[in-house]
Amino acid sequence: MSEVSVTKDAGGSAPATDELVVLEGVNKHFGALHVLQDIDLTISRGEVVVVIGPSGSGKSTLCRTINRLETVDSGHISIDGRPLPQEGKELARLRSDVGMVFQSFNLFAHKTVLENVTLGQVKVRKTDKQEAEGKARTLLDRVGVGNQADKYPAQLSGGQQQRVAIARALAMDPKVMLFDEPTSALDPEMINEVLEVMQQLARDGMTMVVVTHEMGFARSAANRVVFMADGRIVEESAPEQFFSNPRSDRAKDFLSKILHH
Amino acid sequence: MNVLLDNLALFREGFLGTLSLTAVSAVLALVLGLVIAGFRVSPVPPLRIFGTLWVTVLRNTPLTLLFLVAFFVVPKVLFPGINSFVLAVCACGFYTSAFIAEAIRSGINTVPMGQAEAARAIGMSFTQTMRIVVLPQATRAVVPPLSSLLIALTKNTAIAGAFDNVDLFNIQKTLSNDGYDIAMIFVWITIGYLIITYAINGLFRLLENRLEVAR
């Protein structure tokens, strides 16, 4: 890992009570399915929140509502004190402050790795091209794929692609990073290289919302575990407490299925 | 005696008429088609409705009917004294734009949803997402149907010839009035059309090969 750290916003050292992402009474339906039911969730600056739960519980949808890739039917979402605007320039600006990492990487297939990481800086932030390239190379080195800069995404392994995707998000100097099952599409031997990058980010103080099935990551990197089932937040607690002594039956049932087999 | 050699100037005028009508209509149709395809996938509902209406109306109206409207209604009601070439370009261009919009939209649909999501997630606007991320990846899928549509456009311009626009089809009337063998007239006119359509064919094949190499 290189010495260069990502520039964080000035509020990075603010007290932990500083609320960065706030969801209040959020509801969403997919047709008849009530996928998010009265979700209240507050994420503080610098906090790492891991969202876990059975598939179909609404965790990915929750993650995607935070930068409005999914719209909500009711409720309020605000980021850094500002409510999420309607589709348009305002929303685009807000999204540029929220990094997102997808399950299927979604690197721009027709652009090289380097271009993937410079594109947002140049087109959205209007950064000078050379400066953007310098920053992109630093970030690619930091996630360990610096020597792949001139290749196309399809030439990289899944783990490498996902690390490029993390670099692409970091290049925008986001206030918060959203990870939507970042390791679920990876071969087992590549999961760790991605998790290590995420661990490092967490140690550097990045605010993170991570939807994942990696319980090891939840234990070691999370400040808080949010357990979702059937569109509701069933339980929220510190990881040690959640894994050793879950309060709800639903969480006990879930953990018994994934931890002892 | 030879219909072509005796009337070279007229053939040239007709050929250039068809060529210019095709070229200008094609540019208009491509630009409009791109815009309308953008409207049809836009997040703004009024634009989507406009795009759908445009495609529905123009795609489902016979081109001859459009020409009748263009040549007999538009000059009477809206723009008296308007140039017949402009009217023909509008009729052909608008009509073809509806088909091109759908071809481009089908190309857009071949690009995985995640590409556009990733672009929006880093803060790109809708137009940036389209221009920088989606359309470049859609091009490969759009090229083959576009070539068919432009060839169809070339042949459709013949209707303008029936409306007193000087083109390959139109000169046939003059020549048969002069007493030349109608079969020979059509042979040469057909060759004129073939030159244009074959050129379009070759151009798009070149484009397709170029895009093949790029990825």
UniProtKB/TrEMBL annotation, chain A:
Matching SMART domains: AAA (SM00382)
GO molecular function annotation: ATP binding; ATP hydrolysis activity; ATPase-coupled polar amino acid-transporter activity
GO cellular component term of the entry, any: plasma membrane
Every ABC transporter domain range: 21-255
Its membrane topology: Peripheral membrane protein
Transport listed as a keyword: yes
Annotated PROSITE patterns: ABC_TRANSPORTER_1, ABC_TRANSPORTER_2
EC number: 7.4.2.1
Pfam families, per the entry: ABC_tran (PF00005)
InterPro entries given in the database record: AAA+_ATPase, ABC_ATPase_HisP-typ, ABC_transporter-like_ATP-bd, ABC_transporter-like_CS, MetN_ABC_transporter-like, P-loop_NTPase
UniProt entry tagged with the keyword Transmembrane: no
Name the UniProt record assigns to this protein: ABC-type polar-amino-acid transporter
Organism the protein comes from: Streptomyces cacaoi
TrEMBL record, chain B:
Record CDD domains: TM_PBP2
Keyword Thylakoid listed: no
Topology versus the membrane: Multi-pass membrane protein
UniProt entry tagged with the keyword Acetylation: no
Gene Ontology biological-process annotations: amino acid transport
Assigned protein family: Belongs to the binding-protein-dependent transport system permease family. HisMQ subfamily.
One Pfam family from the record: BPD_transp_1
Cell location: Cell membrane
Name of the protein this chain belongs to: Amino acid ABC transporter permease
GO CC, any one term: ATP-binding cassette (ABC) transporter complex
InterPro entries linked: AA_ABC_transptr_permease_3TM, ArtM/GltK/GlnP/TcyL/YhdX-like, MetI-like, MetI-like_sf
Assigned keywords, A-Z: Amino-acid transport, Cell membrane, Membrane, Transmembrane, Transmembrane helix, Transport
Record-annotated membrane-spanning stretches: 15-37, 49-73, 85-104, 182-200
GO molecular function, one term: transmembrane transporter activity
Superkingdom: Bacteria
Sequence ranges assigned to domain ABC transmembrane type-1 in this UniProt record: 15-204
